[in-house]
Amino acid sequence: MFRKIFFTSLLSFCYFISQPVACFAQALAQTDSTKHKLREADSTFSNHAFYIKTTPLTLLDFMNGGSANLIIESHPLQKISVSMEMGFYYPFAAYNMKQLYGWRSGFELRYYYRKSIVDGKEMENFIGVRYLYRKQEFDMHDSIFIDKDMHYEKNYHISRVVNIADFTCGIRMLGPKNFENEFYFGLGIRYKESAIRDLTQQEIDDRNWGDSFIFPILMKSGNYFVPDVLFGLKIGFGLK
After folding, report:
1. Are residues 111 and 45 in contact, defined by beta-carbon separation less than 8 angstroms?
2. Which of the four, 99, 109, 211, 239, has the lowest number of CB atoms within 10 Å?
3. Residues 89-98: pLDDT tens digits?
4. Nearest by Cα to 141 from 100, 97, 92
5. Angle at the Cα of 234 (from 228 to 237), degrees rounded to 5?
C-alpha cells in the first residue's frame, strides 16, 4: 500500500516540478557571466568514457550519519551519462546516533547540455534525475519527559529505510591530469520508513528535543513523505 502511495505521489511530484526545473536549466544555458568572458568550447562532450568519484562532504554528515561513497559514471553517449553509487555508514560523525551501521546505493541519469571554457578551465553543465536508497540501524539515548517535574533517561533502537528521488543540476569542471570536480543541486522528495524499538508510543511522543526544530523531523517514527533538498561536491578523475 505504502509503495503504491509512494510511486503515485512521486509521479505527481515529477509532473509539477518538471516545468520549473526545465525553466531553470534553460536559464542556466542562456546566462552570460558578467565577470568572465565565456566562449563555446569544442562540441565534443566528455573526454573520458568513465569517471570515478567520491563525495567528501558526506564523510562528516552529522545529521544523517557519515558515509564513505564510491561513484562510477559511464558515458554511453557524449552528452548522456549513467552513474552508479555505493557506500556505507560508519559509527562516528553522527550526532547522538550510537552504533550506527548501514549502507546506501543509487543511480543518476544525466544530460550534459553545454560545454564552455572560463578563464581556460573546461566546464560542462548538466541536468538529471537521481534515485538513492538508504538503510540504517542505530541506537539513541534520550530523556523522556512526562511533565516538567518528571523525566527519565532511556536507550532505544531505530531502524530506518529512506527512498529519495531528485531532479538535479550542476556543473562539472575538468582539471589537469584527468582530475575533475563538480558542484550539484537538487530538489525532490523522500519517503521514510522508521521503526523504533524499546519505547512505548507514549515515550516516543514524549522524547525531549529541547528547542530543536530539525531533530523531531529527522527522528520521527512511522512512514511519511518529506521534501528533499540536495547540494554538494564530488571529486574524482576520468579514465580513458
Report:
1. no
2. 211
3. 987 767 678 8
4. 97
5. 150
